[in-house]
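Sample entry was shown:

___
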Amino acid sequence: MSATVTMSRRRLLFGGRQALVAPGPGVETETAGRVAVVLPSCLEHRGVTCRSCETACDPLAIRFRPRPGGRSELSIDASRCNACGQCIDLCPVGALALAQATPSDADGAAR
């Protein structure tokens, strides 16, 4: 039986062959049970449009919802987030992190 490895195209291209090695049975990865969360340092909170994380998110878990006044609100759909870390790698201000998923995240709640 072969293991299924989920990863982004970016991680596959830049991670090389090591990106294809799946952990053995019973081995928990460092991202298991985690989801991306937005920190207060996000540029969108300051009215600066960046959206690097949205373009990096292959499972489309990151969305920007328009708000009055021309600003947008960043939200992460925890049910889509696979904790690949691509958004974290590309954020110019380090405004994203992985956190332990909560029971409300399992329902697809946005953060």
About this structure: Confidence is low (pLDDT under 50) at residues 16-24.
